[in-house]
Amino acid sequence: MPVHQGGNPIVWDDTAAPVFGQALGAAAPSDAILATADPADTTMDVHCLTFNENTEDRIYVGIQVLHDLYLPASGNVAFRPHAHFTFVTEPTTGRTVIWKLAYVYAKPGTDVASAGAFAAAPTIIAANTYTTGASAELRKHLIIDFPEVTIPVANCGPSMAIQFTIKLDTTSTIDANCVSLLFADWHYQKGPLGTIGEFS
Asked: Strand pairing of 76-87 and 179-190?
């Protein structure tokens, strides 16, 4: 169990899941250019993935929660997922971006008896709706939050895994291939130090 030392405060941190490092779903996001290099060397363009709400473009993601996860003596552990995104073309004013996330989780164990099990069906949550405004939003780094996820402390532990799917929901009204998901992260509270043992 993580050790809380010397009266240092419990703080927030996050575990991020970059979208390029993950397998793409059946409705794959499209490759787009976020920043263009010198035309003589297009190999140095910076790329991102853009999403189309009509096909519910999605990615499959896995994260490992680090050893500094704060585990209270009882109750729940709170996680706060966020979607980080940007626009590769200037969006039309008044359009909406709605990210949806389905997740399962399990703590690890060194044998079957101590290992947690992933649920057979995921929990599905929707982020707050982002509505485009009249100001310039092209290439802005934007963050939108999902509802807080609470997990019983008995089901949490160092190196626990959270597997999830994230998509641009069909209820979004943003134009196709205008919005790019940069990454999704899960904020969690952590103590100042990690674990004494390798697995606990």
From this structure: antiparallel
